[in-house]
Amino acid sequence: MANKISLNPTSYHGAGAINEIATEIKAHGFKKAFVASDPDLVKFGVTGKVTDILDKENIPWKLYSNIKPNPTIENVQTGVEAFKNSGADVIVAIGGGSSMDTSKAIGIIITNPEFEDVRSLEGVAPTKNPCVPIIAVPTTAGTAAEVTINYVITDIEKKRKFVCVDTHDMPIVAVVDPEMMSSMPKGLTAATGMDALTHAIEGYTTKGAWEMTDMFHLEAIRLISKYLRSAVANEKEGREGMALGQYIAGMGFSNVGLGIDHAMAHTLSAYYDTPHGVACASLLPISMEFNRDYTGEKYREIARAMGVEGVDAMSQEEYRDAAINAVKQLSSDVGINPKNDRIKEEDLEQLSIDALHDACYPGNPREATKEQVLEMFRQLM
Ligand SMILES: NC(=O)c1ccc[n+]([C@@H]2O[C@H](COP(=O)([O-])OP(=O)(O)OC[C@H]3O[C@@H](n4cnc5c(N)ncnc54)[C@H](O)[C@@H]3O)[C@@H](O)[C@H]2O)c1
Ligand SMILES: [Fe+2]
Prior knowledge:
The chain is α/β, with parallel strands linked by helices. It has 14 helices and nine strands. Strands 1-9-6-4-2-3 form a six-stranded parallel sheet, sandwiched between helices. It has a three-stranded mixed sheet with strand order 5-8-7. Helix 6 (186-205) packs parallel to helix 10. The structure holds nicotinamide-adenine-dinucleotide and fe (ii) ion. Nicotinamide-adenine-dinucleotide binds next to helix 2, helix 5, strand 7, helix 6 and helix 10.
């Protein structure tokens, strides 16, 4: 089967990139923007950095901000109604994965109304039409939703978080401006950055990985390992390196898939509202240990990309240990809690069943039994 790559037609990178938003809106002839962002970003003036530019350029816009972290079916459905009443012809998504994912689902349902129940979009949905054009402006350096063909929605009623995969949701422009990320507090910077590292490592070791995605993932691992500590210290260089590193990870994993870390992380968010990056980060050394014998030489390259010296002289066991230890060290340096004190013993069985049904699981290089998944969850307790 041929390998397929989908990326943004246009993306901007670097400080001040948000100034290009107005240029793009005008060049496409859009008349009014539907600005989708979450309430905290509105409150702290992050959304305002972009709407100020729209105002200055006389571009009308309407705000939609009923978006929570781990966004819900309800966030999407009220968004669809708001879009219909807005008179807008472009969505400007400003925020982390939650704002961008909600925007994708809204944009898809507007042009493919037969999926208005949202649930039927799970997995690879047979939508016929590209979504409403989206200009995506990430404010976290983590999910890379601005360049992925995925979005993730929470079904509160069924206690599930489901992944939708659809090339029709690709934002037409990504605006990756590190200055939009500089207001992130330390804990959020660390967790979202570790989410990006998880994308890069799972994407590099996933079943469908190939030369081109390996190239993206190794460069992402290198950049994230080099710059995450500095980003957590809110240094300019660190913010710039992370903005780029997380995007490059997205160029890769979006096209090949992930693995068991993300499958398990989704269930933790569905059950306990655990922030996505926190869930991914705490599971990363555990899932890497589980997969270690199914990854050929790849952990040597992960260790090298993370700056470990002398990897060529290491035995297989040594370089596999080195890669896992480098991840643990980075995680601990940026203050990630390796445990999750919300997990309840009585939930373990269902959490494990749900993880094995998640759309990310089939990409994992090693098959897992329910008991093995349960044992991995237990390591978080
Ligand atoms: N589409 C994809 O490919 C993809 C990939 C991975 C994860 N996800 C999904 O993305 C969601 C997580 O997104 P996220 O980790 O980016 O966080 P988020 O969008 O859920 O935001 C988390 C919190 O951080 C705040 N925040 C965001 N940017 C900020 C800034 N610059 N300054 C201050 N506060 C800021 C928000 O207001 C919010 O309260 C999850 O639902 C996850 O499943 C999607
Ligand atoms: Fe993720």
